[in-house]
Amino acid sequence: MLRLARFAPLGLVLALVACAAGDPLEEELPPMGDFRLSHNIVVADNMQQVPPSRNATPEEWEEILVAEIDRRFGGYEGDRLYHIGIAVDGYALAPPGIPIVLSPRSVLVLSVNIWDDELGRKLHEEPEQIIVFEGTSPETFLVGSGIARNRNEQMQVLARNAARRVQLFMLENPEWFNISAEEAAAAVTGVEALAEAAEAEAAIEAATAECVPTAEAPCPEATGN
C-alpha cells in the first residue's frame, strides 16, 4: 500500500497544465482486442486525504470511479473476460484559494490490478500505482479549480482522467489482450496525447514544490534540466 508521506508536496500548490477530461462516450476509443469488462471493483476504505482538500467519503469515490470505469470500458465486446480492481490510496480536492497566487489543484492516487478471468489470476505481480491530476480548463487556469469547480465536478474530472490512465496502462501490455504491437502502439500514442503527456509537466512541478523533508520523504532535488 502506498505511503502518502511520499506525496506530501502534493498538498501544496499544484500548478497543473494537464487537460480536462472529456466524456469517453464522445471519444473514438482505441481497440482493446479480446477485452470485455467483467468485474469492476473499487475500494477506498484505506484512502488518505492530502491537505488542503475538500472532503469526500470512500463511498463517493467508489461510486464515481466504478461509473467512469464502466463508461470507458463497458462498450468493449471482446471474447475474453477481464476484471479491473482499483484501490484508492489518497486524494486531494482543491479548496478555493487565492486566484493566480494560490490556486491548489486536485490529485488522485490509485493502485490498479488487472485480472484475466479464464486464467483465474492477476496479469502482473505488483499493483500499478497511478497518480492522476485534475488538469486545467479555460475557466480554472487563472482562478483555480477550487473556485471554478465544485467538489462533485472535481471528482468526476479526476475519475475520468483515472479511467484513461488505467486504459493507458493496459494498452502498454498488449499481449494481455491479443493486440498487435502496431495496433497497440498507435492506441498508446492517442491515449498518451490525452493523458500522460499533458500531466507530465504538472507532476514535475508538484514534485519540485517547496516542502518540508522527513526521514521517509526527503524533498526532491532540482536538477536544473
Brief characterization of the structure:
With 225 residues, the protein is of the alpha/beta class. It is built from 5 helices and 6 strands.
The third-level CATH topology is: Rossmann fold
Helices and strands, in order, run as EEHEEEEHHHH
DSSP strand content = 15-25%
The Cα radius of gyration reads 17 Å
Total tally of structural domains: 1
CATH class call: Alpha Beta
The general outline is globular
Helix content: 25-40%
Biggest pleated-sheet summary = 6 strands, mixed
Extended strand count: 6
**Poorly predicted residue ranges:** 1-20, 137-144, 200-225
Number of H- or I-type helical stretches:
5
Distance between the termini: 32 Å
Computed structural class: alpha/beta
Oligomer: single chain
The whole-number mean of residue pLDDT values reads 77
CATH architectural category? 3-Layer(aba) Sandwich
Describe this structure in words.
The chain has one domain: Rossmann fold, CATH 3.40.50. Helices cover 30% and strands 19% of the residues. The chain has helices at residues 58-73, 145-148, 151-171, 181-194, 196-207; strands at 35-43, 48-49, 80-92, 107-116, 121-122, 128-133.
